[in-house]
Write a structure and sequence with these properties.
It is a single chain. The chain is mostly helical. Helix 22 links the parallel strand 7 and strand 8. The C terminus is likely disordered.
Length: 563
């Protein structure tokens, strides 16, 4: 008996293949690999978000299970990620002190609000809102955030006892911490190149913990993770922060929702392309939103899909969501039995984990690539990068500025559509007459092609082009509109079309419309702009129009009939 399509869409895990022994073996290997990687990464990203370190492991447990059960992309690894953690820190920094109960409450509210917003957008099928952020803006913002993440981890990595401000005022270095950080950085980088599927992060972390315990690193003033609570997370109900504090969380919520799901999109598109399937972005919005809600109710922070862990999951042989189930079991075992082993891990090692994970986001050549493709978008990308860096820690101003600049550019292009006068090229195609120095299609004829929709943004430019030409060429007898590229006409466009037609009728000028598509034709007919008239002719193809222009070439040379 087959299940209803709606049920399998909302519960994607019902589409998982029946587990066989071979499948479970490969899924267990992938889950073990990702699970061993996410435990130390979760602790490191919790530190980056200003949260209690144990919450990084909490965010890797139940949220990952919720996401894999309700997301369409079941092979993605969901949990704490560097960029979302930085956005959480940036959004909460003006409101509370990191690590305090107030900070934790606000982080939980941020996870709940972001999760509710994502789930609502998915249920309303609003995944298309992702298109508001184009690739150059996202690339620039991601790279700026990566620079900020790396710079925030350098003091701990290099063994400085304070942040950047204290480093400049009174530099004090702990040589042992610097040794741990730099050694971990080199080993992690080498292990990543040597064998990506090997759980190098956990091995290095445990080795660092053992060395730290043997040399008495904590006793000499070194910063370590410290004691982590064992056991499962309990239900966490945050205190009411007040309407004013919730209002201050609106912008961080929007940015975390948008950027975290764009991270998901980058991984999900790759996964679905490999499977040859269409990406269900709305279902993934629902799954990611539920993961954030579950994370908040676990007392943790907002989660997202990790590109590096998802790639590792695929590389390790994951085929279904069973791999995530096995990774959750690994995290569960760590929470129940192995958190004491992390007590002596130096915080410099956590900084090295973050740096190695984030440094791959730095791709300066992307700016040159965007610049070569489009100078305007290259400037927008550079401006987004600069504003994000300058606005730190309020990073949301960078992405908001980038989105506004990209939308302004889009609006400008629509307000200035490409409208050209065409002529017949020797190869038989219709091209820009002035660019290729071509003769008119027919004597005393204006032949226009509009490469845009005829709507409220472009209609004024269309009317201006026709009216100015008629003013400069009062002997014009025909206007030919090659309408094949016009995909959409709105009310304003229909009104302007009718107004232009009335001006042509008053001058005794004939209007020929070629290749008008059915949706556009229906709008014009509903507006009464295509009423039968001896001065209006419609042609289905450009070939028919050219033939009509050749047949009427002599008529166009004749004196105009009286108005």
């Amino acid at each position: 008996m087959s299940l209803p399509p709606g049920l399998t869409r909302r519960l994607p895990f019902l589409r998982w293949p029946r587990p066989t022994r071979a499948l479970l073996r490969s899924e267990a290997l992938a889950g073990l690999t990702v699970g061993l990687m996410v435990i130390p990464q979760g602790v490191a990203y919790a530190q980056l978000a200003g949260m209690p370190l144990i919450t990084g492991i909490y965010a890797s447990l139940l949220p990952a299970l919720a996401a894999v059960l309700f997301s369409a992309s079941a092979r993605l690894s969901v949990g704490p990620v560097a960029l979302t953690s930085l956005l959480i820190y940036a959004g909460l920094a003006p409101l509370a002190q990191p690590g305090t109960p107030e900070w934790v409450d606000l982080a939980v509210w941020l996870a709940l609000l972001s999760g509710l917003l994502q789930a609502a957008l998915g249920l309303a099928r609003f995944g298309w809102l992702l298109n508001l952020v184009n690739s150059p803006v996202l690339t620039a913002f991601t790279q700026a955030a990566a620079v900020l993440i790396v710079s925030s981890q350098l003091p701990a990595l290099l063994g400085f006892k304070g942040g950047w401000a204290q480093m400049a005022a009174q530099p004090a270095i702990n040589p042992s911490a610097a040794a741990f950080g730099l050694a971990a950085l080199v080993l992690l980088w080498l292990a990543r190149r040597w064998r990506p599927t090997f759980p190098s992060i956990l091995v290095i972390v445990l080795a660092a913990a053992g060395v730290s315990w043997l040399v008495g690193f904590e006793a000499t003033g070194g910063k370590v993770i410290g004691a982590l609570p064992q056991g499962l997370p309990s239900l966490y109900i945050p205190t009411w922060p007040g309407w004013h504090a919730l209002g201050q969380l609106v912008l961080p919520t929007l940015v975390v929702t948008l950027i975290s799901f764009l991270e998901t999109a980058s991984s999900a598109k790759v996964d679905n392309q490999r499977k040859g399937e269409r990406w269900d972005q709305d279902q993934d919005l629902i799954g990611q939103g539920l993961a954030k809600i579950v994370s908040g109710l676990s007392g943790a922070f907002a989660t997202s899909s990790s590109f590096s862990r998802s790639a590792l999951n695929l590389y390790a042989g994951a085929q279904t969501g069973w791999a995530t189930v096995f990774s959750v079991l690994v995290v569960l075992g760590a929470l129940l039995f192995f958190t004491p082993a992390l007590r002596h891990v130096p915080q410099a090692v956590l900084a090295a984990i973050v740096v190695v994970a984030v440094v791959g986001l730095l791709r300066p050549r992307e700016f040159l690539r965007v610049w070569r493709i489009s100078r305007v978008e290259g400037v927008i990308a550079a401006a987004t990068f600069a504003i994000t860096i300058a606005a730190a820690p309020q990073l949301y101003w960078g992405v908001l500025a980038g989105v506004l600049m990209a939308l302004s550019h889009y609006l400008y292009r629509n307000l200035h559509p490409r409208i050209i006068e065409v002529g017949l090229h020797p190869d038989g195609t219709l091209r820009d007459r002035h660019l290729w120095h071509l003769p008119p299609l027919a004597p005393r004829t204006l032949a226009l092609r509009m490469d845009a929709a005829l709507d409220f943004a472009s209609a004024g430019e269309f009317e201006r082009c026709v009216v100015e030409y008629l003013t400069e060429h009062p002997d014009t007898r025909q206007v030919c509109l090659l309408a094949q590229p016009i995909n959409h006409i709105d009310v304003t466009g229909a009104e302007v079309f009718a107004r232009v037609q009335a001006q042509l009728n008053a001058r005794g000028v004939r209007l020929l419309v070629s290749g008008l598509k059915l949706p556009a034709e229906q709008v014009l007919r509903a507006a009464g702009a295509l009423a039968p008239s001896p001065l209006l002719q419609l042609w289905r193809t450009d070939a028919e129009t050219l033939a009509a222009l050749r047949d009427t070439g002599e008529a166009a040379d004749a004196p105009a009939p009286p108005a």
